[in-house]
Amino acid sequence: MLIRFKYCGTHIKDEEYMNKMSSKGWNTKNLMEGFWIFERGKDNEYTYRIYYFRGMNKKAINNKIEELKKEDIEFVYKYSFWGIFRAKKDFELYKKEEQLELCNKIRKPMIIAIVVCPLAIAICIALSIIISGIFIPITCLIAVYYLVCLYLTIEYTKLINSIKRRKNN
Question: If you count DSSP H runs as helices and E runs as strands, how many of each does the chain have, helices first?
Fold first, then answer.
């Protein structure tokens, strides 16, 4: 077993990282907030892809897993809104035109967060001054969330622009 920390920024970069590790004989077993768990396998044994589950109920998720299983695509792990899949063949879960729509869908709540978080931080700072210092840890948590959302927004914006450029060429 191998544990590594790597926060990739987009689902495409996650796929690239898993496939790079697979090329070295490390099969993805689990992912939790940037901490990857790999198990030993054969070099290039699997191709990995990630599916976005947000907005799907448990039945729809199970149906998707079963649908892909019929195509010899194995479900590995569900993390937050994401499902990690692998197969002993190259495969895609999204058509190229679906990728752009998906990236915009993923980025939208992050844009909202980077607009709202500074206001929440200002309110918490004011409450810390007026009422109690107990709001300082809350302010710090919101600030960390803001920075993560800002980072992810930048990464997804770069990915969206890259997809658009490839689409126009």
Answer: 4, 6
Positive or negative, the CA dihedral 96, 97, 98, 100 is: positive
Judge whether 78 and 106 are in contact, CB under 8 Å: no
Closest by Cα among 87, 82, 81 to 48: 87
In the chain the first and final C-alpha atoms are separated, in Å, by: 42
- pLDDT at residue 166, rounded to an integer: 82
165 vs 12, 43, 89, CA distance in Å? 16, 33, 28
The pLDDT score that the predictor gives to residue 145 is 95
Long-range contacts of the stretch 97-100 (C-beta < 8 A, 24+): 97/167, 99/12, 99/163, 100/160, 100/163, 100/164, 100/167
> What are phi and psi for residue 92, nearest 5 degrees?
-125, 145
Rounded-to-integer distance, Cα 46 and Cα 50, Å = 13
User: In 3-state terms, the chain is what percent helix, strand and coil (to 5)?
Assistant: 55, 20, 25
Cβ-contact 46, 86 below 8 angstroms: yes
What residues contact 104, with CB distance under 8 A and at least 6 apart? 160
- pTM of the predicted model, to two decimals? 0.85
| Beta carbons within 8 Å of 50's beta carbon, 6+ residues apart | 11, 14, 15, 82, 83, 84, 85, 93
